[in-house]
Amino acid sequence: MESMKTRKRRREIGDKDRPERGQEEAGETSWTVGSQVTLPYLMAGIGMVLAGFELDIIQHWPVFKAMSEIFILAPALVGLKGNLEMTLASRLSTAANTGKLDSAADCWLLVTSNLAVIQLQATVVGFIAAVVAITLGSISGGNIELSRAILLCASSTSTAFIASLILSLVMVAVILGSRKVGVNPDNVATPIAASLGDLVTLSLLAAISSTLYRYTDITYLAPALCVLLIMVTPVWLLIARRNSSSREVLQSGWQPVLVAMLISSCGGLILDKMITDPRFQGMAVFTPVINGVGGNLVAIQASRISTYLHQSSIPGELPQGMKDLCPTVCQIFLRSGPNSNSARVLLFLVVPGHLLFLFTIHVARAGHASITHMFTIFYLIASLVQVFLLLCGAELLVRLAWKLRLDPDNFSIPYLTAFGDLLGIGFLAICFYAKLMTEG
Predict the structure, then answer these.
(1) Is the pTM of this model over 0.90?
(2) How far apart, in Å, are the Cα atoms of 261 and each of 83, 88, 151, 416?
(3) How far apart are the C-alpha atoms of 218 and 213, rounded to whole Å?
(4) What is the pLDDT of residues 290-303, one digit of tens each?
């Protein structure tokens, strides 16, 4: 038997939201989506190119040469930005589009509790990511000294904490501002998060790890930093529990983030092996770009589908037109409707965007690999396949989460961005192998 809350939600959808939703969807044409997404997408891409330049430089710093486990850690931390900030952007975008941020009091409570959740998750997952990097590094390259392990934990936890604080505040400002100027937050929030996230995270990781490495003779510095950040976590927990939506994240939001971190760490293990091989010099500069673009585009699509489901149906029931749990490629890309429109637009943006980013890398003469015609073809094919698979995965995963009565804003984006990292690094490695085989 349906609960009173469920029946009320049905009446709200049937009697109130449908006319407004119909008008909103009618305005969300391919042109509307493209015009709102393109500029933030290109800004995000330039940020990822800059992150690639930075990774290409810092890979030669003493701390990175002494502790190659940082290369295993880097994709997990950069991915953590996607797993936390993009889910925050998706949650707040959905809240904004469903009117939950219209009241100043409700807005303040929702924002502060969600920020507290992000800081709590960043601290815990940042520490665990370092432990996983140490474990994978030990398996692949031998034992690691205790002092180096503590330094890695302190660097990872501090980077995750500070990066999440900065990016979360930016996300809140972008989402509230976009609603005031009449722009759909789903289209702009995640690209802007991506434009800053990679660069901020890598900069903090390089700066903090280098500083701690420089002062390794102060033996208590790294452990004290770890202990201090962990001691603050109960404060974030108390703040987060004040709101029902953030309490839900505390209960169900850990598994996706932790599993996604493990997936990204596997990609980091591939990166560690490739980036230290002289035959793959130059791979570092392309890694944040291909990973970031894939994660950026799929996060936009997942956020849009999640918003559509929140407006159209109740958890556990798929709306009309989305009844198939496992849609076909034609249903995803070729049918009429807002989600198919956005899927086509996002897939179309892949090649022009990557050509611009490759041209920027070529003009700046960054990296140690020449961008030949053959490499460009391999790279563009890999990027298209990556985004195509991720967009298909977004449709499946968001529908599955909704059918299981899980919030797609919390459940789907961490998995999608993590698989984007793994696919991106794997496909990039294949591109370099193909380049070696065809060009010598």
Answers:
(1) no
(2) 8, 17, 19, 11
(3) 10
(4) 988 898 899 889 88
